[in-house]
Amino acid sequence: MTSGATARSAESAQPRERKGGHADLTRGSARSLLLTILGELVWPSGQPARTSALLYVMDGLGIEEPTARQAIVRGSDSGWIESHRHGREVSWTLSRSLIHTFDEGSRRVASLSDPFESWDGRWLVLFVTVPQALRAGRKRLYSDLEWAGFGNPFAGLWLSPHTERRDQVASLIERLGLADETVSFLGKADAVGLSELDIVERGWDLAAVAEDYAAVFERFADPHPSPGDEQLFTHIRILSELQRFPFSDPQLPEALLPDWIGRRTSQHLQALRASWSHDVAKRWSEINSPTR
User: Fold this and answer.
1) What residues are paired with 94 via a beta bridge?
2) Could you tell me the strand order of the sheet in which 182-188 lies?
3) pLDDT digits (tens, 9 = 90+) for 242-288
């Protein structure tokens, strides 16, 4: 489970010294870390999350209490979570929209390690012009097309080998009022003009993505956290890194991008998550218990 679909970007949190003299190196704003906690701990548990439990985990990840409380309040204002008061204690349940988003995000993160060997060679191609009257939606269009795995080799031209995302893109174009400004095609690349390798090189900045993957892999190459809190915090840190990549990694087929470091890194991180998931869920249940 992951909240990868919910955060459009992850900011770099400044390291701060924690007890024991070790700097916390968690990447991500309080907002994005809260979403990760909600998606990885609260969602699969099926139980409300106590405010004190959320604050405990966020403190362990290097987020000061006032900032953590503000993130929780903003999460409520944004409609992600709903409050329930029990005396002086407040607990939080996930909204239906956030659950839907987590469901989509979990699939996208899981697919990072998929070699996509079933690709039939066809591309979904869009020609989109954003008129001045609709320029306010340009940033949203670009952001959502990138989330859908589309590359942009030329101005106005977007394409992706993920033809199964056609309905997703159609909904986006309709929502932004760009149906009359868009032409789409499904088909294989022809021999005229750029080769498919050229298209890949121009459409995505894969060198930067590969460098990012390499840094994450190095950081979590062979972690051995102690059972309990350290294991839980490491688990969340790993997911916080992993969930960023659906926004930058277009998940191209093996035929276009063989031996991609993203697939190897994702497989490694997912294996770590799987090895700790039971113990992490148990520790979260203890932290979230009213008797703690």
Assistant:
1) 81
2) 151-154, 157-160, 122-128, 182-188
3) 988 998 999 999 999 999 999 999 999 999 999 999 999 999 999 99
First vs last C-alpha separation in the chain: 25
Tokens encoding 242: 């992993």
Report d(CA 232, CA 200) in Å as an integer: 38
Distance in angstroms (rounded) separating the CA atoms of residues 137 and 247:
18
Q: pTM for this one?
A: 0.83
The letter for the amino acid at 123 is W
Rounded distance, CA 113 to CA 115, Å? Answer: 6
Give me the count of residues in the chain: 292
Give all domains of the chain, ordered by start, each with its CATH number.
Answer: 1-113+210-292 (1.10.10.10), 122-203 (3.30.70.240)
Residue 201: burial class (beta carbons within 10 Å; 0-12, 13-18, 19+): middle
